[in-house]
Amino acid sequence: MEKIIRDNIFQQAIKWIYEASSMIREKMNDPLHIETKSNPNDLVTEIDQATEKFFVNKIRSTYPNHFILGEEGFGDSLDNLTGTVWIIDPIDGTTNFVHQKSNFAISIGIYYNGVGEIGLIYDVKRDVLYHAKKGEGAYKNKVKLTPLKRDLTLEKSIIGMNHFWLCHNRLVDEKVMEKFVRTVRGTRSYGSAALEFAYIAEGILDAYLTLNLAPWDIAAGIVIVNEVGGVTTTIDGESVHMLKQSPILTCNPAIQEIIIKNYITKGRKVT
Ligand code: 2AM
Ligand code: CA
Ligand code: CA
Ligand code: CA
């Protein structure tokens, strides 16, 4: 993507993120209309939907030839990533949004012919924007993030993962994962995939493993993590398919191989 075009899209996207976040802040303390999607704990509110609609309307009127992939379904249904595609999660961490009014983010990844060009993750409550353009580094607000340290060991790592890895699950033997959590320094679960990617980029979390994520959960995060030398694959170490859901590992490259080889592969169930 041409630099001048990318810079224009980047500036525009940031302006819309700030506009959307003021609307979210204005409405978030009113009574929320909450519905469930795939299961009783899979929530969506009218603010998730209104925020996605806001971005879709702005993008369609400003860039009519761009495509949109959004969690709440107001974008396009795409079977390929040709052209410029905005991959949008209007509120990532809806459960946190509903229950805590914090620890949620707007996540926007902008891809050109399948390549991640721009990543934007905005922590609405803390007013922190993680952003990156491919090849130009990653930033937390105005501060440039430093490359991830290469001398990290698993024993000194903090891992983002939730309890489902230690419950009986369809992917990996929980006994192997028990060994894993006993080996690492600590685990954390923040409940927003986008923010967990941002924390990997910031170097305050060293790996994030998740059982099933969709493109809008990871599109922005992949671009940001990549700019500090982090790596994102499926949990089997394969490249991520940007139009499918998959179990994901994003991490400091120093611990990628040991996680995949010594834990995931050993415990992997045939699916
Ligand atoms: P969401 O809040 O945008 O739905 C926490 O569970 C993380 O997993 C969040 O980033 C959440 O994104 C994502 N997630 C993906 N699929 C989910 C589902 N079916 N139910 C709840 N969270 C889901
Ligand atoms: Ca959701
Ligand atoms: Ca999400
Ligand atoms: Ca969402």
UniProtKB/TrEMBL annotation:
Keywords, ordered alphabetically: Hydrolase, Magnesium, Metal-binding
Reactions this protein catalyses: a myo-inositol phosphate + H2O = myo-inositol + phosphate
BP GO annotations: inositol metabolic process; phosphatidylinositol phosphate biosynthetic process; signal transduction
Name of the top EC class for this enzyme: hydrolase
Binding positions (Mg(2+)): E71, D89, I91, D92, D217
Pfam families: Inositol_P
Protein name: inositol-phosphate phosphatase
Organism: Cerasibacillus terrae
